[in-house]
Amino acid sequence: MSFKLEDIKIGYMVEVTFKERESLKRLCVVTMWEGDIIFTNGKTWFQPDDFDENFGSYYITKVWGYPEYAECMWYNDTDDRPLLWERHSAKKMTKAEIEEILGYSIDIIG
């Protein structure tokens, strides 16, 4: 399942990852501020326009839905939230690793 920015709703939670520092991640609640949708963790915020179709210098790695209990909606954690989507990067493998998984030899073409 692919996820688009327009699929993200106020009250959801997103994990934002910085492209230049893959280890730098932020959990953000989706909310509104002055009529605009923003992602915030209470210390910093991002507007969805900061993300182009390749998500600019940031990208979304996970999206969680609404928490089980409404009073937890604005807590900055993923407890009691269903994980709706997770980005999976392509796994880099050698020919030998692929052959080991398949159990037979392969020829790479193209």
Description:
The mean pLDDT is 83. A six-stranded antiparallel sheet has the order 4-3-2-1-5-6, with no helix packed on it. It has one helix and six strands, in the order E-E-E-E-E-E-H. With 110 residues, the chain is mainly beta. Strand 2 and strand 3 (36-40) form a beta hairpin. The two termini are 28 Å apart.
Descriptors for this entry?
110 residues, mainly beta, six-stranded antiparallel β-sheet, 1 helix, elongated
Can I get a quick summary?
This protein is mainly beta. The chain is built from one helix and six strands.
Mean pLDDT: 83
Helix/strand/pairing category: mainly beta
Principal-axes geometry comes out as elongated
Assign a percent range to the helix content: under 10%
Element-level helix/strand string: EEEEEEH
Our measurement of the CA-to-CA distance between the termini, rounded to an integer number of angstroms, reads 28 Å
Main sheet specs: 6 strands, antiparallel
Number of E-type strands: 6
Determine Rg (CA atoms, Å): 18 Å
**Helix tally?**
1
Strand order of the largest sheet: 4-3-2-1-5-6
Note the beta-strand portion: 25-35%
Low-confidence stretches: none
